Amino acid sequence: MVLCLSLLCVPVQAAQREKLVALTFDDGPSGRFTRRLLEGLEERGAKATFLLCGYRMEQYPELTERIFSEGHEIGLHGYSHKSMQNMCSRDVTQELEKAMALLPDGCQVSFLRSPGGFCGECVQTVAADLGLAVLSWSVDPKDWATHDAEAIEKEVIGCVRDGDVILLHDMSDSSVEAALVIIDRLQEQDFRFVTVSELAHARSITLVPGTKYTRFYETDPQERK
Question: Is 220 a catalytic residue?
Answer without folding.
Answer: no
